[in-house]
Amino acid sequence: MTMKLLVIGGSYFLGRVFLIQAAKLHNITVVNRGTYSVEAFGVQQIKGDRKNASLWQQITDDYDAIIDFCAYEAHDISTVLKNFGKKAKQYIFISTVDVYQHDTQRKKDEQTPLETNFSSDSAGNYIRGKVLLEQELCAECRQKEMKYTILRPSIIYGPFNYAPRESAYIQLAVKNHILPHVTDAEGKFQFVYVKDVANAILSCLLNENTYQNAFNLCNEIISDYNSFYEELKQVIDVPVTELKMTVSEALAQNVPLPFPLTAAETQLYANEKSINSLGMQYTPFSEGLQKTYRAFKNVFCT
User: Fold this and answer.
1) What number of other Cβ atoms are within 10 A of residue 144's Cβ?
2) CA distance to 78, 118, 289, per residue, from 156 (Å)
């Protein structure tokens, strides 16, 4: 069934990949600041600041679902729903697994309590914003008698990733022919391929099983810096020199360390609910990394 979707954000990474996939199936209007045009994907684009109430008052069409990729601060969602003239059937909010209370002893499922203590740094502010927005979404949708779905992805990787994570290591391999191998990091983490998250969103659209529900989106494979190095080494098809280094040496040489470094930072998550309710089939990390490498190699070789 072709649906009418209102997408908030959509210019970058996950939102961009979602538009590429969803525009083939649905009629989409994108609302964002217009830094980059997305009309080439076959969607309509409305340019404006999401924090501006008048922007939402001027949108008068009906939509089956709103998909929100760029809500980060308190009131980002309430501004939309309090001023949006029509009532969409469903609001899908892209949150994060980081909203859960810190616990290194077990995998967190969707029943795990949300965090209440936040650090004052940028990471703490990000988590605080997502927690507040989840609560805000529930309250606003309850008032408007509207369905909502919350998706909580882990570390997203893949083509178009602007964050200096896997792409930073691919760039070092392709341009400098070196591949850092951090040997003493104890942190563990879980990835999720960007197209898997986009497919999860598509699976949630007007899906009654997802209403008033949250879902973790993550690969069950647990990675660390050693396995990340080994997996990346397998997909790289240019000559590279392994640079073994400790965390301290990597920091001194400004080598990116984008993933958890210590056991105390390790947070792991359960994905059974997304598999059982959404039918998720997660892309093996080796396969996703191969596709990611090919995409970024083309960028760094030009």
Assistant:
1) 15
2) 26, 22, 11
Per residue in 133-188, pLDDT (tens digit) is: 999 999 999 999 999 999 999 999 999 998 899 999 999 999 999 999 999 999 99
Using CA atoms, how far residue 75 sits from 2, 81, 92, in Å, is: 31, 10, 16
The topology under which CATH files domain 162-189+222-268+283-300 is UDP-galactose 4-epimerase; domain 1 (3.90.25)
Share of the chain above pLDDT 70, in %: 100
Give the type of residue at 137. L
Q: What is the pLDDT of residue 302?
A: 66
The pLDDT, as a whole number, for residue 298 is 86
The ranges of the chain with pLDDT < 70 are 302
Asked whether the whole model's pTM tops 0.70, one would answer yes
Handedness of CA 295, 297, 298, 299 (dihedral sign): positive
The confidence score (pLDDT) of residue 87 equals 76
Calpha distance 70→10 (Å, rounded): 8
CATH architecture of the domain with range 4-155+191-217: 3-Layer(aba) Sandwich (3.40)
Domain ranges of the chain: 4-155+191-217, 162-189+222-268+283-300
